[in-house]
Amino acid sequence: MLSIDKDTFKKDYENKFIKLHGKELSEGNNQQKYEALGALVKDYVANMWIETNKKYKKAGDKQVYYFSMEFLLGRLLGNCLLNLGIRDMCKEALSEMGIDLEEIEDLEQDQGLGNGGLGRLAACFLDSMASLTIAGQGCGIRYKYGFFEQKIVDGQQVEVSDNWLRGGNVWETKKADKAEIVKFGGSVKVENVNGKLSFIHVNYEPVLAVPYDTPIVGYENNIVNTLRLWSAEPVSNEFDFSSFSRGEFLKAMAYKNSVESISLVLYPDDSFYEGKMLRLKQQYFFVCAGIQSIIRHFKRCGGNIKELDEKIAIHINDTHPTLAIPELMRILVDQEELSWEEAWRITQNTISYTNHTILAEALEKWPTDMFKTILPRIYMIVEEINERYCQELWNKYTGQWDKISRMAIISDGYVKMANLAIVGSHSVNGVAKLHTEILKKREMADFYYLYPSKFNNKTNGITHRRWLLKCNPELTNLLKETIGDSFIRHPMDLDKFKNHLDDVNILSRLNQIKQNNKVKLAEEIYKTKGIKVDTNSIFDVQVKRIHGYKRQTLNCLRIMDLYNRLLENPSLDMVPRTIIFAGKAAPGYYLAKNIIELICSIADKVNNDPRVNEKLKVVMMDNYKVSLAERIIPAADLSEQISTTTKEASGTSNMKFMMNGAVTIATLDGANIEIKDEVGEDNIVIFGLNADEVLNFHKYGGYSAWDIYNNNPRVKAVIDDLVSGRYNSDKDKFNKIYANLLSYNDEFFVLKDFDAYLEAQKKIDVIYRDQAKWQRMCGVNIAHSGIFSSDRTIKEYATGIWDSKVLYKNL
Ligand code: 26Q
């Protein structure tokens, strides 16, 4: 914890402002005030950062490197202040200086270097590792443009580039002296030197990987870990721009552009793989730079390369960084001159892999021709890994060609990244119990049979520091008052709140806090969308990526049905609802874009119909991102987690809602199952097909969307409304959704679950009317949410996968 008193802080801040902007604080605008505060906080952190690195070096304990294509950090200022233990002091000091801290925090650009769950999980893990004093560093790409900004224009998503670095980034430090060279293309010359083969990469295109370090501050423990993001630059002096003839100048520019394109932009697809060459380059770029710098540091600290696996753990976040496996082999064999067998032992022991999805369309595979051309030496290594491994398979499964070809790393002209990740690592984990079971029993069954001990589950978690303390200060205060503050360091202590759930006074305060959060969100909705919402209505929220399997369509169809029933019966007995959506569609995913259009059209229709709009409002908020989630989630009464069972690996917003006292309506998918197991059936509303039913439909068929359409008049009515022109003057507008539901036999079982979903929603109304019961449910959810802190998850990774000791027991 940083010990600094208010007066010192005030002086420091004024000085920092003057130094940075060359004028008095009173003359500055809020943006400048933000920059000065960020820069000051970074100064405060600097010494702790150095000391942390010294401690780690001295202790010589195992270091964990979390490799991820995505880190979705959101804003840093508020959480830095919170973790330093000075946020309240700063707030007070600034307020005495006439500055509103929250207004200043609001000016920070979100660091949006991720698509959704996977990237946000990486960010929560960094926070937990630092807070648990685990020597864990992040390694990724410093995209110049993050995840696109979404504007909703005329009811459609419009993508705008996210130029997040435009105004500078106070948090990062460029470490030019720590740059590494990454080599692409060219060819490999094999030479026999004294009876030993050596591999020389020639005619390659060199790329300079320059690291930018961001401090990751632990919670009141003086620990500052590092997130290292790599940026691609041309290798200096490679071309002398000024003296070259025009032709060569153009060549030089082409080289510059080709290099810079590598870290230019984050791919905005999730759960869908496209074999783009640039994406493969991105993957190798950061993995190669990251591993070289790890080895360089390791050796500089006097490490013995043969003990690398005892001192270093490298975790790969999905298959995107799988090239870490052949890259580590390359360094160990080509540079460190270890035998293949020894290098392989070290590599397998060092690397561990998390799978985040079972969607077949998300499995990465690269055409061998492309792979060979871009990464000639790495391809040779993958071939060698594959040959040795297939030999092992052949010995075990002699003659079973189908099986061997299914399990091979290279087959049918592709390099299969999941297969490489499983073979080259010592641990493969899923992210929720059901997901891991499906991996073991179905998707990866061949591999589970071959290597049963590699497979394990690590149910996801979220950092309660951002998703409770920071985003819901009023609730945090209530908890502190009632159960003390031990839950901050030990989130399982939230269960002490159970003892207070019969106290009407506590429940009514809980309710009041929710109400206050709803009022704030309602103001924002009015300001940004011009929609007036009733803060006494149920705030019914579905915020996440827009995707077929997440079934925003199911939510839409029930709104359309509700609208029908309200028109039929204006005095319909229902609790008023405000149904809030937010989320981005991948730019090339036309069904998802069509779903956004449907949400917006429904919103337009019902919000402007005076016959229903006292009872029903629909809102699609623009540009869902971490900082918006921090405002929406504390204001939610109802959390919609309605994915087709088996499709959502875990989900993590489900945990955030629960921790903020929302009730969940859910299918038995991903971590929803574990939430149900924690809170009990009476404190969550479950509906829909279970995993076996879905898997059996997939296996044996037998589902007909047309049958449901023909036999269920309410389903028929809403489906017909999609193409009747009722919600949009263009009757063809929702053709994609219509086709997906009927022509393609409703691959996500929307119609199959429709009735059950309506029943479940009815049940929500009934419970909500019994306010005492509802409030108690909210309290039960909060009290059981501690297990979903990412601190629990990270401890499981540390002990079960990385074997890294918790270093400094100063907790
Ligand atoms: C792959 C290849 C090319 C371009 C993009 C991609 C790509 C990018 C991002 C593939 C997948 C992703 C992200 C996946 C993701 O976020 N999965 C989610 O991970 C969460 C954390 O484990 C889970 O809670 C969610 O259930 C899961 O959907």
From TrEMBL:
Q: What class of enzyme is it?
A: transferase
Q: Which reaction does it catalyse?
A: [(1->4)-alpha-D-glucosyl](n) + phosphate = [(1->4)-alpha-D-glucosyl](n-1) + alpha-D-glucose 1-phosphate
- Required cofactor names: pyridoxal 5'-phosphate
- Keyword flag Glycosyltransferase: yes
State the UniProt keywords alphabetically: Carbohydrate metabolism, Glycosyltransferase, Pyridoxal phosphate, Transferase
Q: Which InterPro entries match?
A: Glycg_phsphrylas, Glyco_trans_35, Pyridoxal_P_attach_site
What Pfam family does this protein match (any one)? Phosphorylase
State if Cytoplasm is listed as a keyword. no
- What EC number(s) does its UniProt record assign? 2.4.1.1
The family line of this record is: Belongs to the glycogen phosphorylase family.
Q: What does this protein do?
A: Allosteric enzyme that catalyzes the rate-limiting step in glycogen catabolism, the phosphorolytic cleavage of glycogen to produce glucose-1-phosphate, and plays a central role in maintaining cellular and organismal glucose homeostasis.
The protein's name in its UniProt record: Alpha-1,4 glucan phosphorylase
In which organism is this protein found?
Clostridium hominis
